[in-house]
Automatic annotation (TrEMBL):
PROSITE patterns: ALDEHYDE_DEHYDR_CYS, ALDEHYDE_DEHYDR_GLU. It comes from the Bacteria. The active site is at residues 209, 243. CDD domains: ALDH_YwdH-P39616. Signal peptide: none annotated. InterPro entries: Ald_DH/histidinol_DH, Ald_DH_C, Ald_DH_CS_CYS, Ald_DH_CS_GLU, Ald_DH_N, Aldehyde_DH_dom, Aldehyde_DH_NAD(P). This is Aldehyde dehydrogenase. Gene3D superfamilies: Aldehyde Dehydrogenase, Chain A, domain 1 (3.40.605.10), Aldehyde Dehydrogenase, Chain A, domain 2 (3.40.309.10).
């Protein structure tokens, strides 16, 4: 079937009204969950092939995450779908106002390779729950996950409802020629701009889940041991190929040596002595990215790691000190297991500097004083983040997850996924039992009353 015919078949199906019903949506979510359960082993195998992910990491960051999202959605969907009644001013006596959540229609989800199943399926949970049809375009770089996704979806859903279209950027470009009712994109900022430009041709609304350089600030009074442990975990999970991984560290100069020492210790306990020989340590997705990352090892002083295995495309968890803002590693999102370190004397100076940069997807602040925590949250703009932790905010389905400025627009997870894929339609139901004369021009009394009410 051509892409054009596929989109048309989804449009016809959507217009038939079948996806609107609550029971229908719940049944599809159940089918999705059973699909993931039935294919659990194949999923582990595909993620191992694409990125050398361990079973543990595959479950916690991909499969388990999706099970949680489905469970949360099943539990709350009925409430979320309810009309929301709204107050009205006195001029509207006799009326009822409410918001109806309606699906957009035919939606497109374009996803990246770093969490190839989670990032393709999590938006689909939102699209299903809101009553849409979906076409998914997974990343061509995570080929095993992409073909498994296509197979699982084909066996579970009719393509007129959910379909996977595999391929590289040319396929995305072809898809973007079609008119969709909503586009949900996860990927780089550069491609995000292309998606928005193409979507604008049809005035299609978009969510853009992008990346950027997410800082971790470690202040003088931070808990050294826990900060080190949580930073190391957040950075080197998936070998740093996580959109919200701490991209660089900004450490108070008084605690820098202590923290770096503790981070080395934590790394050893996480990956034992030899991460490259650790069968569960994630590899870099492809040779291009591997070579790009190696250029970052040329500046500064490597205080930990730095070894590589070209055959396996693995780079040891690496910490680089004595980095300046002018080094290549500080010019773009790293997206790999390399962690540059900057130091500071005064938090105000950090805030001033970060304010001049693009708004990041995440920001992490480690420090005990509430006043300083507040200062960071209030004075800096970023998608979301944690105080005294990394990554954990995105695992709470009650928090919207998304970027701001260069790191994206819109948000999802839990209820926010449902909202993202729903249009809020305002309805006013007027009475025919009486007709307030106030709005009609003419009467002197009406004018003085309306002036009082509306002024
Ligand atoms: P990417 O932008 O290169 O590709 C993402 C998707 O877009 C792929 O499916 C790809 O085939 C498609 N694509 C590529 N070029 C295109 C074009 N010219 N026109 C249309 N489609 C095109 O991103 P990536 O390398 O797969 O992923 C890494 C980036 O994604 C990083 O910047 C990372 O921070 C970001 N990311 C963000 C989130 C988030 O939730 N905000 C999550 C994961 C990754």
């Amino acid at each position: 079937m051509t892409i054009q015919a596929l989109v048309q078949s989804q449009r016809d199906y959507f217009l038939s009204g079948e996806t609107l019903d609550y029971r229908f949506r719940i049944n599809q979510l159940r089918k999705l969950r059973s699909m993931l359960e039935n294919y659990e082993k194949n999923i582990y195998r595909a993620l191992k092939q694409d990125l050398n992910k361990s079973k543990y990491e595959s479950f916690t960051t991909e499969l388990g995450f999706l099970f949680n999202e489905i469970k949360h959605t099943e539990k709350h969907l009925k409430d979320w779908m309810e009309d929301e009644s709204c107050d009205a001013p006195i001029t509207h006596k006799g009326t009822k106002s409410f918001i109806r959540k309606e699906p957009y229609g035919v939606t497109l989800v374009i996803s990246p390779w770093n969490y190839p199943l989670q990032l393709a399926i999590a938006p689909v949970i939102g699209a299903i729950s809101a009553g849409n049809t979906v076409i998914i375009k997974p990343s061509e770089y995570s080929q095993s996950s992409s073909s498994l996704l296509a197979k699982m979806m084909r066996e579970t859903f009719d393509p007129k409802y959910i379909a996977v279209v595999e391929g590289a950027k040319e396929v995305s470009e072809q898809l973007l020629q079609e008119k969709f009712d909503y586009i949900f994109f996860t990927g780089s900022t550069a491609v995000g701009k292309i998606i928005m430009r193409e979507a604008s041709k049809h005035l299609t609304p978009v969510t853009l889940e992008l990346g950027g350089k997410s800082p971790a600030i470690i202040d003088r009074d931070a808990n050294i041991e826990l900060s080190a442990k949580r930073i190391v975990w957040g950075k080197f999970t998936n070998a740093g190929q996580t959109c919200v991984a701490p991209d660089f560290l900004y450490i108070h100069s008084k605690i820098k040596d202590k923290l770096l020492k503790e981070m080395k210790k934590q790394l050893k306990s996480l990956y034992k002595k030899n991460p490259l020989g650790n069968d569960d340590y994630v590899r870099i997705i492809n040779e291009n990215h591997f070579n790009r990352l190696l250029t970052y090892l040329e500046n500064g002083t490597i205080v930990q790691g730095g070894n590589i295995d070209r055959n396996q495309l693995k780079i040891e968890p690496t910490i680089i000190d004595h980095i300046t803002w002018n080094d290549p590693v500080m010019q773009e999102e790293i997206f790999g297991p390399i962690l540059p370190v900057l130091s500071f004397e005064d938090l105000e100076e950090v805030i001033r500097t970060l304010k001049t940069m693009d708004k990041p997807l995440a920001l992490y602040y480690f420090g005990e004083k509430e006043k300083n925590q507040e200062k960071v949250i209030t004075k800096l703009s970023f998608g979301g983040g944690c105080i005294n932790d990394t990554l954990y905010h995105l695992a709470n389905p009650n928090l919207p997850f998304g970027g701001v400025g260069a790191s994206g627009m819109g948000a999802y997870h839990g209820k926010y996924s449902f909202e993202t894929f729903s249009h809020r339609k305002s309805i006013l139901k007027q009475t025919t039992k009486f007709d307030l004369p106030l709005r009609y021009p003419g009467g002197k009394l009406a004018f003085s009353i309306i002036k009082k009410v509306m002024k």
